[in-house]
Specification:
The relative contact order is 0.19. The chain is built from ten helices and no strands. The longest helix is centred in the last third of the chain and has 29 residues. The chain has one domain. It is mainly α and about 210 residues long.
């Protein structure tokens, strides 16, 4: 994200459901229904509406940055993880998997932390740092990963990944609550499109 804009990052991340659908088709021969395809498209348009402030010219003015391919690789990797996660035979239980993910992340980040300490110096441990690290460890890392693993295994990769498109909605809502940002019509239109898209994607067909 450091090497691209927040808008580009959100757009690439919004492609997650579509990328997951393609990978699920290649690996597991899972197909999106027409209704699910419409839902994914609707939610994607909703995100574009929110981040562009309903101005198509803003999207056309975007530049491709060095970080965009890296974001795309991350999206593909996360989609592969989601597809294989749904195939229970390939992976351990949710709690063991969560431990493996946390341990792997710690091992990968340790060399970079040591380099930063050697060059910049150790960070100052303050109350704010402790609170921030505790929040990051418990909510985005531990709980979010656990519930994500559970939802993918329960719903399947295609139906679970569509909920990623709620990130801009919650981001806008929290910005209004905590930062005092204003609510505009494009927020409402985008959020409605995203919710409609999610509903179309996850709602099971009724039995006639």
């Amino acid at each position: 994200v450091y090497f691209t804009s927040a808008t580009n990052a959100v757009i690439v991340n919004a492609a997650q459901p579509a990328v997951t659908a393609v990978i699920a088709w290649i690996i597991a021969r899972e197909f999106l229904s027409f209704r699910q395809g419409v839902g994914v498209t609707c939610a994607f348009i909703g995100i574009l509406t929110m981040i562009s402030r309903a101005d198509p010219a803003a999207l056309l003015a975007l530049d491709i940055n060095a970080g965009d391919p890296v974001m795309l690789i991350a999206v593909v990797g996360w989609s592969l993880y989601a597809v294989y996660l749904h195939r229970r035979d390939y992976l351990p239980s949710a709690d063991i998997l969560l431990f493996i993910i946390a341990l792997t992340g710690a091992v990968i980040l340790l060399p970079f932390y040591l380099i930063e300490v050697a060059i910049v110096g150790p960070f100052t441990l303050s109350t704010n740092v402790i609170i921030s690290m505790s929040y990051m460890a418990v909510f985005p890392t531990l709980l979010a990963t656990f519930f994500w693993n559970f939802s993918v295994r329960s719903l399947g990769a295609n139906r679970a990944t569509i909920f990623i498109n709620l990130i801009p909605v919650f981001g806008a809502a929290f910005a209004m609550i905590f930062l005092g940002e204003q609510l505009f019509s494009y927020h409402i239109i985008g959020a409605v499109l995203i919710f409609v898209g999610i509903l179309l994607s996850v709602r099971k067909r009724g039995i006639a």
